[in-house]
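Researcher: Here's a chain I'd like modeled. Treat it as a single chain, no partners, no ligands.
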Amino acid sequence: MVALFLALILVAVVLGIIGAVAKGMAYLLIIGIVLFVVDVAFATVRWSRRSGRPIR
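Model: Modeled as a single isolated chain. Structure tokens:
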């Protein structure tokens, strides 16, 4: 799960860099930002469920 999270973060950063640098590719920047936000939100929800107290 952590490997998938890190891979998606890497893809988001690469898309963001390409979108910011390449002329006419601003949509890649938007896709990178959206992918980053969704990935962080998903990881936060997933990890917060695990950190709860065990039921006795």
